[in-house]
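Repro:
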Amino acid sequence: PRSIGGAFGGAAGGGPGLSLGEKDLIHAVIVSISTGVCVSKLRNVCTQYISESGLHIGIKKNGHTRLIQLIKQARTILYERAKSDKYNLVFPFKINWYRDKWYRLRSILKF
């Protein structure tokens, strides 16, 4: 089966030849699409939220976190990013960074 990020190279997407910003965007898009997690929640994912059982997101009104199952590709990306994490956040970028990169990608793809 083909991976979501297969067009970008590597099992997790973001293969050789990509700049750091491009790799970050590709990782964020792959994890967001495969989990259904919006960018605002994705930006708050801490390394301790990642487990073998899935990704634990936010505290709901009932006081519990939501467990999201992960496909292999998303798990690989999250573990890779968690290892290189400096800020305890897996995607430590501001919302404007993500939006600007997304608009740039849309213009390149002529969307």
